[in-house]
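Q: Hi! First time doing this. I have a protein sequence and I read that you can turn it into a structure. Is that right? Here it is:
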Amino acid sequence: MSTTTRTRNDASGVQSTHVAATEPDHYPTIVRRSAAVARLALGWVFLWAFLDKLLALGFSTGRDAETNVVDTFGPAAWVNEGSPTLGFLKLGTKGPLAEFYQGFAGASWANWLFMIGLASIGAALMLGVAMRIAAGSGVLMLVMMWSAVLPPDNNPFMDDHLVYAIVLVLLAGLGAGRTFGLGSQWERLPFVQRHPILK
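A: Yes, that's right. Below is the predicted 3D structure, encoded as structure tokens:
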């Protein structure tokens, strides 16, 4: 835990020193460990989505909707020139922004951005590094996915995408990468200390 020391004069002119914690390592163990487990779980959600779309593992990619047959590593896999964005953006979008999202469904740039986002956000969360960037990028991706299906099926406005986005902000604020992760080592790197956004 890093600290900040402040010296001040009180009314009688006597100097006193106050040490204030500036890093969230002072949270109780249960909070730090729960946040770390939530970080790992959410990281796996992003990484699994990447792997499933990359290789068509049959969970949301590579499964025939009519026969339920899985064609692992088949033509739906991104490695076999399948599109990770085409199906959802073309057929799964609804609401006021559906036409906007359908306009770039299957576009090469959208596929690359989506897959790079899934992989990098997932890896950062799993490792506990670059939590601020991972949280910001993850919130952007999740809010876009939420806005592609407005209104949600089971609630006037709230769904799992917004809950995940809130959790990402919380994890970054709690410094969740420092427990069961490489966050402490990452934050000690000189270039990270010079650029706090990389924490």
